């Protein structure tokens, strides 16, 4: 739960005060609407927020590390389906930018791979149980 604390706090912070007041006053016979007139559902708002935050954080990782976007998304989908971020196989190597595996560059490549795996595990731990990939089949 600790890894999800910032996610929950971010969700609450993005709701405006009026929406929070409406949610606090909600009863079975009262519909709650946002400032645009759309019916407000906490579950829908939460799901949308989680999906947007996940996509933003994943895009940020892809951009900062120069990863292949499609392969990185597929790797994370497989990780959520498997319940872990695995370093086995060639998947991580495939999504990384090309780097020499020899000489001094080998150390830099190993450090980059380690940093990428750590970032992916952090992302996984933050969103596991919250993100579903029904469109992905093993």
Features:
elongated; single chain; 138 residues; 6 helices; mainly alpha; 62% helix
Secondary-structure-derived class:
mainly alpha
Q: What count of structural domains?
A: 1
Mean pLDDT: 83
The helix fraction, in percent, is 55-70%
Detailed description of the structure:
The structure is a single chain. The chain is mainly α and 138 residues long. The chain has one domain. Helix content is 62%, strand content 0%. The protein has six helices and no strands. The protein has helices spanning 5-14, 17-24, 42-65, 69-82, 91-95, 104-127. Helix 3 runs antiparallel to helix 6 (104-127). The longest helix is centred in the middle third of the chain and has 24 residues, at 42-65. It is elongated, with a radius of gyration of 19 Å. 9% of the residues are buried.
In short:
By secondary structure, the chain is mainly α. It has helices at residues 5-14, 17-24, 42-65, 69-82, 91-95, 104-127. The model is unreliable at 134-138 (pLDDT under 50).
Please specify the SSE layout and strand pairing.
Layout: H1 5-14, H2 17-24, H3 42-65, H4 69-82, H5 91-95, H6 104-127
Helix pairs in contact: 3-6
């Amino acid at each position: 739960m600790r890894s999800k604390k910032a996610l929950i706090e971010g969700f609450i912070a993005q709701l405006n005060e009026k929406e929070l007041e409406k949610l606090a006053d909600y009863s079975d016979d009262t519909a709650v609407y946002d400032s645009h007139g759309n019916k407000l559902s906490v579950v829908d708002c939460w799901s949308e927020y989680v999906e947007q935050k996940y996509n933003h954080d994943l895009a940020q990782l892809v951009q900062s590390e120069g990863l292949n976007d499609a392969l990185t998304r597929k790797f994370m989908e497989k990780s959520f389906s498997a319940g872990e971020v695995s370093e086995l196989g060639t998947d991580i190597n495939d999504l990384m930018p090309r780097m020499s595996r020899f000489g001094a560059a080998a150390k830099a490549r190993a450090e980059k791979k380690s940093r990428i795996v750590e970032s992916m595990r952090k992302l996984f731990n933050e969103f596991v149980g919250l993100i579903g990939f029904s469109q992905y089949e093993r």
